[in-house]
Amino acid sequence: MMKLVLLFTLLAASSAYTWKSCGTKLDRLMTDNLRMSGTVKAGEKVTVTASGTTDLHVPLESGAWQVRVYETGVAKETHTEVGDLMKVLKFDDPKNTTFTMTVSFTLPEKQASGEFDANIVAVDQSKADYLCIDVDYAYSSKQNVLATEPNAEYCLHQEDVEDHKCFEACGASPFQSKGITVYGKCPSKYSTVDKVVTEEQCPDGVTNLRYCQSTALNVTIATKGEAGVIAMV
Questions:
Q1: CA distance 19 to 133
Q2: What is the pLDDT of residues 210-231, one digit of tens each?
Q3: Which terminal residue of the chain, N or C, has fewer Cβ atoms less than 10 Å from its own Cβ?
Q4: Gap between the Cα atoms of 42 and 126, Å rounded
Q5: Are 195 and 204 in contact (CB under 8 A)?
Q6: Structure confidence by residue, pLDDT tens digits, 151-180
Q7: CA distances from 6 to 98, 151, 185, 212 (A)
Q8: Which residue, among 144, 139, 129, 13, has the nearest Cα to 63 in the 3D structure?
Q9: CA–CA separation, 78 and 69 (whole Å)
């Protein structure tokens, strides 16, 4: 678990935020990927998009989400927002085994340290815990602008160390790809592009396209290599 938290921290460092799950094994939604977009500045609204797998015990009929923002050095939360879970959560496949949840909230004014923890939770109609996420961010003298462009890429990669190759899959929104599971683009040492293919798929990477016409997306997969290195045959 500590390795996962460290990985999330390193991946998000360049984006002015880090995140971790604060839930338990009983949660109905297990977050695998998270992206925050917007401007990290008091009074601005940011959007958090979380995606992953589900462990549903009963069908979801209704629910609610809540975000509480805490600032280091302040005893109580400095900002709270709530909303309808049914409006921000969607299941990405017919069997409801994967999900995407998108919530937006306003960043509060600095009162002390300028270091914040946005705690996002959700419950269903029976008050069962659906998920718990902590998103940490901080204000600085330099304004932090996260990925706000509507076509910002979401990428996964997988290294083949033995053959000195890296497979990089990118799309316009969160998705899963069999065998390509590490968040972000390939490391910079893979500077050559050997092959590029674009495929239309469902967000979960396995469902037949006929069952996800409304959520299907194009995923571009690039096979990259290291300059000057000949792969083993």
A1: 7
A2: 988 888 999 999 999 987 765 5
A3: C
A4: 35
A5: no
A6: 467 888 999 988 999 999 999 888 888 889
A7: 24, 28, 18, 34
A8: 129
A9: 6
